[in-house]
Design goal:
Largest sheet: 3 strands, antiparallel
Strand content: 5-15%
Order of helices and strands: EHEEHH
Distance between the termini: 25 Å
Length: 113
């Protein structure tokens, strides 16, 4: 059984995924466009729960990518709406978005290593 199901998926695919996860003793967690099948855990990630730690990293990676996509949309919208004249406020807004993106890129690089 695969441990993830990513949109687009049908209700039937989701139901089959959930049934297989249940049969394997896993719980379902939805994050963004991805559904994860995870082993139950007491919240502590240890060496014996490497698979659980990997799944948690995958969840965070998905969340980071979603956050980056939203920031990218905001910056594109700002540039499009203010193409004729850039005021200082828009430049500060764009710099703030770039700082947030850099922070997310750094965290993503750590999770991918």
């Amino acid at each position: 059984m695969t441990n993830t199901l990513t949109k687009p998926y049908t209700n039937k695919q989701y139901a089959e995924f959930a049934i297989q996860a249940n049969e394997a003793g896993k719980k379902i967690k939805i994050s963004g466009d991805t559904v994860y099948a995870l082993h139950e855990d007491d919240g502590e990630i240890t060496g014996g729960n490497y698979e659980y730690a990997t799944e948690q990293n995958l969840i965070r990676i998905s969340e980071i990518k979603n956050e980056m996509e939203e920031l990218d949309k905001k910056s594109t919208r700002c540039l499009r709406e203010n193409a004729l004249g850039k005021e200082e406020a828009e430049l500060v807004f764009l710099q703030n978005i770039e700082n947030q993106m850099e922070s997310l890129r750094s965290e993503l690089a750590q999770l991918n290593s």
